[in-house]
Every structure is written in structure tokens, then in C-alpha cells.
Amino acid sequence: MQIFNRKLKKYFPNYIFQSLLATITLTIILYFENIFTRTAIIASLGATTFIIFAMPKYATAQPRKVIEGHMICIIVGISCFYISSLTQNRESLFLTQNVPKIFIPALSVGLSIFLMTITNTEHPPAAGSALGIVVQGWSYSTILVILITISLLSLTKYLLKSWLKDLV
């Protein structure tokens, strides 16, 4: 059993550089946006940051998949949020009031997976954005933060792609 990644010795400077780059990029983005109360969405963006800077050559780190995957999941999240809002007042349609509270957030993830896979825009952390929107609600500023963050992360990756290595 090996504790440290085999690539560590060869790419040690990249491990430092890419981890610092991820930290700095996300710090700058979060400095200008105050969405810390949207923890599921922040976690999703953190996972996107990990994929972009730790696994930049992987398919899920490609800008098209990052941006379009999140956009699909934003639409799914908002749609499911409104479905959830409608079903809260329709208790008679369900056995218990908790069914929509449990099923609709899960549905947002399932629909996100379905739509991302059929459109070849698979970016797993984006499903967390859909889930966060359904569970925690949304606002135009939240959507703007997601779009700005994924755009800046993708731009940073694009500009520095020749220096980035897969660390996993």
C-alpha cells in the first residue's frame, strides 16, 4: 500500500502550484460574492475547482463540460425548485408531506445526470448545484455567482493549460 501518489516526486512543483492556484482563484471569486449561506452550491463549486486543478486533462474538467453541465443543472434545479414549491401546498396528492421534500431534490440530481449524459456535458459537481438550488432556494445573484465562478475557473484553466498536470 502506497500512501503518497506516485506522481508526487515527479510533479511536486505542480502539486504546490496547482493547489495554490485553486486557492487563489476561488478566494478572489468568493471575495466578491457572498453566497456562503448556500453551502451545497459552494461545495459544488469547490468540487469543480478540484477537478479543474487536480485533474485538468480529464474529460470532466473541459470547459464545455464544466460550463454546460452547470448550466443544465441550474435549469434543472430552478425547475425542480418550482415543482417543489407547488407540491408543498398539495399535500393530498402524496401520502405524506415529506415525500416531495425528499423526492424532488433527488429528482433534480437524477434529471441532471440524465440530461448531462445525453448531451455529453458530464460534470459531476454540477449535480450538486441543482441539488443546492432545490434545497436552499435560488436568486439571480446565486445563479450569477455560479456562472461567473465556472467561467473564471475555465478561463484560468485555459490560460494555464500548458502548466497544469494531472495530479491524480
UniProtKB/TrEMBL annotation:
Keyword Magnesium applies: no
Domain of life: Bacteria
Domain HPP transmembrane region: 15-155
Membrane-spanning segments: 12-32, 39-55, 67-87, 99-118, 138-160
Signal peptide location: none
Keywords: Membrane, Transmembrane, Transmembrane helix
Protein's recorded name: HPP transmembrane region domain-containing protein
Species assigned in the record: Candidatus Sediminicultor quintus
